[in-house]
């Protein structure tokens, strides 16, 4: 901004009843307009007052464009800014408009190269979607101007400038009229000159009525001479700051990452959505499946959602009529491990997507550096949440180890909805030693520890983790009276009724016929026909379908 424009702006504020003291308006090192203290501003000192008559409100904008009564507040206010800008010195607001930045570099202004700094982040998608919506609103509004304003005068560049002025500088209208209920915004000259800094102690004091009143700034802390003075826009994440204001912070305690698991192609999508809806599991956001995770917080509703997503058919059947969301706090050990593994995979995938993008950090522009701060913050949040998930997983494994040691096996189908005493899985057991997953589950490696059986399998198959191999290994293991998993095997037999879908049974019969009697003939001392019956294969398939986790493949015997 020019020195003359600033002098005219200050004079305009004072001529219209505005007051301020100890303030110097100048650009910072990046050319961003800022406010500095010329002398010590003490705590509880009022350093600026602006009358409401200087503010640009929705009411003022709509008065200029009465035919656009159904257009959103922000769009009609952006149009009003363009209108006043075109009016030049004839506009009452000209001194204010003349000191506004010519361009506010939010992601809406990013070039293709700039957008690489947002690649694989939520903000990359949000920027494109939001900008398209703004452009659509611009086109619709522009086509309706008729006699209010020559539509050829309203360019996309001017409208985008005005729109970003509002995203970066507007305040809630309730500062003028606290009783106003509909969402509305206001531009406050002078008041909007202070940049944002989290945790800055400052008070906005309103006085008078919405027509003749004023807004004052009162310092809640001391600002020393030469120090930049800040406002506090409230708790905002880097994502919100970068998109709306064009800047962010190296570490922002309010950072979050939006997660939305995509299970629309799940064959049981409708059944799982029904459970979520009848248990009223929702994020509270417009899209109820989108959840925001923070460095130190994972929403309970997100964990409940993920538990439903990894449900087996048996689990879905057990919860089909459930209406109590508290029963989704813990479903069973298999479900909990599957949930934690899937959540970790989701977080890891997002983290790797951010980290794999090679960017020039050394020669980044100042706005690209802000984008780097944002993406680094996203990576840090994902890393922190992964750590929390791993800690939750270890707690589950410790509890499983205790139950195995005590031979405490829940009744089949091993679900808390039938065994309510099993719900306190996250009790404090930090003092217990670290437990690896392999200690509490049945792995293919454990099932193949019998040398004779392993030798036969190696001659018959190539992939040791093939589902068919695991089923055969389960049948073989069950035939051993001293197997450590006999209690689990017997429990599983009780729930294996054989009442499977006809198509599934036929497929399993085809599989059985392709294996036997040829396997028994080739290795009679391993594949005993009296042990490897079709009913045994049904039983093994039942375990594989209802008691396993993936990545790594393992059977949960609790």
UniProtKB/TrEMBL annotation:
GO terms of biological process kind: methylation
Keywords: Methyltransferase, S-adenosyl-L-methionine, Transferase
Pfam family, one: Rubis-subs-bind
Species per Swiss-Prot/TrEMBL record: Apophysomyces ossiformis
Methyltransferase found in the keyword field: yes
PROSITE patterns: SET
Residue ranges the record marks as coiled coil: none
An example Gene Ontology molecular-function term: protein-lysine N-methyltransferase activity
Protein name listed in UniProt: SET domain-containing protein
Domain of life assignment: Eukaryota
Domain SET: 21-234
InterPro entries per UniProt: Rubisco_LSMT_subst-bd, Rubisco_LSMT_subst-bd_sf, Set10/Efm1_SET, SET_dom, SET_dom_sf, SETD3_SETD6_MTase
């Amino acid at each position: 901004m020019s020195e003359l424009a600033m002098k005219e702006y200050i004079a305009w504020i004072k001529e219209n009843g505005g007051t301020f003291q100890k303030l110097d308006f100048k650009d910072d090192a990046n050319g961003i307009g800022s406010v500095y203290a010329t002398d010590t501003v003490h705590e509880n000192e009022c350093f600026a007052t602006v009358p409401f008559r200087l503010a640009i409100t929705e009411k003022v904008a709509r008065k200029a464009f009465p035919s656009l009564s159904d257009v959103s507040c922000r769009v009609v206010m952006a149009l009003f800014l363009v209108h006043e800008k075109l009016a030049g010195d004839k506009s009452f607001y000209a001194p204010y408009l003349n000191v506004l930045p010519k361009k506010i570099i939010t992601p809406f202004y990013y070039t293709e190269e700039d957008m690489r700094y947002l690649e694989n982040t939520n903000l990359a998608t949000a920027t494109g979607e939001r900008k398209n919506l703004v452009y659509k609103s611009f086109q619709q509004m522009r086509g309706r101007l008729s006699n209010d304003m020559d539509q050829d005068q309203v360019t996309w560049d001017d409208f985008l400038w005005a729109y970003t002025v509002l995203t970066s500088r507007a305040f809630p209208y309730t500062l003028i009229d606290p009783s106003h209920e509909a969402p509305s915004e206001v531009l406050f000259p002078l008041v909007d000159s202070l940049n944002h800094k989290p945790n800055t102690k400052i008070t906005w004091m309103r006085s008078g009525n919405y027509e003749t009143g004023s807004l004052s700034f009162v310092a809640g802390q001391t600002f020393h001479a030469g120090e930049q003075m800040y406002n506090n826009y409230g708790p905002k994440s880097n994502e919100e700051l970068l998109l709306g204001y064009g800047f962010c912070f190296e570490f922002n305690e309010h950072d979050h990452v939006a997660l939305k698991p995509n299970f629309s192609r799940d064959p049981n999508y409708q059944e799982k959505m029904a459970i979520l809806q009848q248990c009223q599991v929702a994020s509270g956001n417009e899209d109820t499946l989108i959840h925001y995770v923070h460095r130190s917080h994972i929403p309970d509703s997100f964990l409940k959602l993920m538990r439903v997503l990894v449900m087996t058919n048996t689990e879905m059947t057990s919860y089909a009529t459930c209406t109590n969301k508290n029963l989704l706090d813990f479903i069973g050990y298999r479900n909990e491990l599957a949930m934690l593994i899937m959540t970790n995979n989701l977080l890891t995938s997002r983290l790797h997507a951010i980290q794999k993008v090679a960017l020039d950090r050394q020669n980044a522009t100042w706005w690209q550096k802000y984008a780097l701060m944002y993406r680094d913050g996203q990576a840090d949040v994902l890393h922190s949440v992964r750590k929390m998930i791993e800690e939750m997983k270890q707690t589950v494994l410790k509890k499983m180890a205790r139950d195995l040691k005590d031979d405490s096996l829940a009744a089949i189908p091993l679900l808390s909805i039938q065994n309510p005493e099993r719900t306190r899985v996250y009790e404090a057991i930090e003092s217990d030693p670290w437990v690896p997953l392999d200690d509490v589950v049945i792995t293919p490696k454990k099932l193949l520890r019998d040398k004779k059986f392993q030798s036969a399998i190696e001659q018959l198959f190539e992939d040791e983790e093939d589902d068919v191999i695991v089923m055969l290994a389960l049948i073989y293991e069950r035939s051993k009276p001293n197997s450590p998993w006999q209690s689990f095997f017997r429990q599983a037999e009780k729930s294996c009724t054989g009442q499977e879908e006809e198509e599934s049974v036929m497929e399993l019969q085809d599989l059985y016929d392709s294996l036997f009697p040829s396997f028994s003939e080739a290795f009679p001392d391993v594949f005993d026909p009296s042990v490897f019956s079709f009913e045994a294969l049904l039983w093994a398939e039942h375990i594989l379908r209802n008691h396993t986790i993936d990545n790594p493949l393992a059977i949960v015997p609790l």
